Please model this.
Amino acid sequence: MRGEGLFTERAPNGRFQWQLKAMNGRVVAVSSSVHESSADAERAFAELVALGPALVARITHVRDGLGWTWVVPGPRGNPLVKSSRAYERYATCQNAFRRFMALVARMAETGAQPLAGAQPVAGAQPVTGARPAVVGGVGASGGDGAGGVGGGV
Model:
C-alpha cells in the first residue's frame, strides 16, 4: 500500500508500535518503544510531533554489519524514535533524518488529520496523514559518526 502518515501495528509481543511512512509507502521511522494500546502509541507520536524542531538525531555506525542508523534520544537517553533501517552511507542517513523531520513538520502544520478510507497492510492501522512538501536544509555535524543532525526544517 502506498500512503503517507502514521500507522500503528501490533508488535510480536502483543503490544503496539508506530511507523511513519512517506508518500511512496516506505517506512521512514519507527517507535523505539512498545505501548499497551494503539491509542498510547498515537499519543507518544503526538508528543514527538510537539517537540518538532527540537529533535536532534544521533547517527552511529551499525555494530554488527555495514551502515549507519539514526536515533533521537529522549530526556533520559532512551531512544524516542529510530530509523527504520541502516543506510550504506553517513550522508544518506543524514538525509533520511531530514526527510523524517520534514514529514513531522508537515504533520504538525496540518494538525495530522486521520487518513480517510486507507486500508492497512499486515495489521497496520492508519492514524494520520499529510500532503507532501519540499524538504528544506538542515544543519548537520561532521561525518565522524559520533555527532547528530539538527532538526530545524
